[in-house]
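Practice problem: predict the structure.
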Amino acid sequence: MTEATSLLRLEEITKNFGAIEALRGISFEINRGEAVVLLGDNGAGKSTLVKIISGGMQQSGGKVIFEGVERNFSSPAEAKAAGIETVYQDLSLCTNVDVVANFFMGREIVKRWFGIPILQEAEMEAAVAKAMANAGTKIPSLRTNVEHLSGGQRQAIELNRFVHWGGKLVLLDEPFAALGVEQTRRGLDMIKRIAAQGIGVIIITHIMTQAFQVADRIVVIRQGRVAGDVPTRETSPDEVVGMITGEAQAYDKPSGQAQETRPNGPPT
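Answer:
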């Protein structure tokens, strides 16, 4: 990866909770326009890592390098200002207002007439309609309150909003856990379109088929370490399961050497 294409680089990230080592030297990189899936058992450290990237938690050691600059985000708001957004299962939408209001929340277009602020409703609605159309998202009415929309439609609003406001890296934590088959298919297609615009995507999922459908690369986290970092086209579900369980060799990307792994222990 070159400096021009590299978006995020993690170098030997560690995280301790007292005597517990949750992360033990995580290193990997993501390019602009690349979709990377994080796989691993519960407790492997995936969510902790995402919280560190998104400013929700500080690492104990190591470096987070974003757009070529070492960053230590002190809050999710600071990470968001830099172009990093996290989308959780419960989302961050206000369900009692419509799509347009959610899209422009905190960024409303206002013009003043004789000193009185007037919302530019038509201009905002046109901008949202264009963003949704570009993403292939269909919602019957942008004036519908979000509470009346499906989980897939809500997720589409949040992702389209992220893209519209200049997002650079989106972190998706189990984005399809509560969605049906068709909504999941549309969500996977949307992720591909987002990546095609040069945006980096990191996805946490437990569903192997989804990982192989959407990921350019799969990174396996096991017991706080990177147990595998492979292009999706060069691996298989069985091989990835072996990395997750410790039955397969772990690939140590910085040195290019395979490490022997024990089923119940870290790489040796």
